[in-house]
Amino acid sequence: MEVAPVDLTPVDLTRRLAGRVVLVTGAGGGIGRATVARLTAEGAKVAASDLTAPDVPGAALTLELDVTRRAAWDSAIAEVQARLGPLDVLINGAGLAVTKDIEATTAEDLRRSLAVNLEGPFFGLQAGIAAMKARRAPHAAVIVNLASIAGQVAAVPLAAYAAAKAGLVGATRTAAIHCAEAGYPIRVVALCPGFVETAMLEGIAGSLGETEAMLGKLARRQPTGRLGTPEEVAAAVAFLASDDGAAITGEALIADGGFVAR
Ligand SMILES: NC(=O)c1ccc[n+]([C@@H]2O[C@H](COP(=O)([O-])OP(=O)(O)OC[C@H]3O[C@@H](n4cnc5c(N)ncnc54)[C@H](O)[C@@H]3O)[C@@H](O)[C@H]2O)c1
Asked: Does any ligand 1 atom lie closer than 6 A to the CB of residue 195?
């Protein structure tokens, strides 16, 4: 990959992603919505997708994309490019948590988790690379995969989810080096949030005990003493997706309030 260094000064955050065309999956969820808002505020033209076209303020385009369907990826990216222009950034945000330990996980739980959390973004990597590899823009294209600390350390009540997210970090590294070695101007990165206040975490907490009590317990497990916010995750996504992240590829960035460091 040979992409000339970009001039990073002066940095105007309201224009950092000016005109960049972005596709976000899982955009109807907590982190997805915040990501659409953040990237839009930074000047991007954002296509927001989910199982059904999500109603997301600020999106330049909303569309349906079930990430588990390989062929649907090609039509979604074709639609985004026809309506908004060449794809600059893909955010693989769609995800699904099955709160079961390894003994309780059924074959169907495992398949469902792998389909959404690993196959989906893997298909996204394939479709994204195909769309971005011949680009001529002065900046690199970027694929950001929403992985998790569950892919970094043991997550006992989330056995299938942890396996999928660890796999996603492996796919990220492999795709990043593939792109670099093939000379494609594409960076591929993963972001590993900790416990973030969204419907997904509420679902996990509710499966483990009384929801509010469990959320409090999870918050106290993060050294910062609180849950992360979707906006904080979105800010990290924006950094990775922008030229400020130009030196970063094949990396899994942890944004967990210090959970893994403890
Ligand atoms: N909330 C957390 O604590 C946390 C922590 C680490 C990582 N993550 C990851 O961040 C991402 C966003 O999570 P969130 O907390 O906003 O969850 P969320 O449940 O609020 O949103 C997830 C979205 O993904 C969508 N989705 C599910 N299956 C899909 C499919 N087959 N095709 C397309 N969309 C599909 C859902 O409809 C939903 O809108 C996920 O990948 C999740 O695993 C979340």
From this structure: yes
What pLDDT was estimated at residue 138?
87
Closest residue by CA, ligand 1 atom 9 = 146
CB of 32 closer than 6 angstroms to any ligand 1 atom: yes
Q: Does residue 75 fall inside a structural domain? A: yes
* pLDDT confidence of residue 213: 98
CATH number of residue 243's parent domain: 3.40.50.720
Give the model's pLDDT for residue 95: 98
**Is residue 10 classed as helix, strand or coil in its secondary structure?**
coil
Give the span between the Cα atoms of 41 and 134, in whole angstroms: 28
- β-pair type (89-92, 61-64): unpaired
Residue 221 in domain: no
Determine, yes or no, domain membership for 186: yes
Tell me which of 24, 67, 69, 96 to substitute to probe ligand 1's pocket, judged by most ligand atoms within 8 Å of the beta carbon: 96
Q: What is the pLDDT of residue 10?
A: 64
User: Given CA atoms 192, 197, 200, 206 in this order, what sign does their dihedral have?
Assistant: positive
Catalytic residues: 161
Q: CA 216 to CA 226: how far, in whole Å?
A: 8
Position 9 scores a pLDDT of: 64
Parts of the chain with a pLDDT under 70: 1-3, 5-6, 8-10
Range of the domain at 34: 21-196+229-255
Ligand 1 site, residue 121, Cβ cutoff 6 A: no
- Strand, helix or coil at 222? coil
Q: Find the 183 Cα to ligand 1 centroid distance in Å.
A: 32
Residue 124 lies in a domain: yes
> 29-49 as b/e, with b when 16 or more CB fall inside 10 Å?
bbbbbbbbbbbbebbbbbbbb
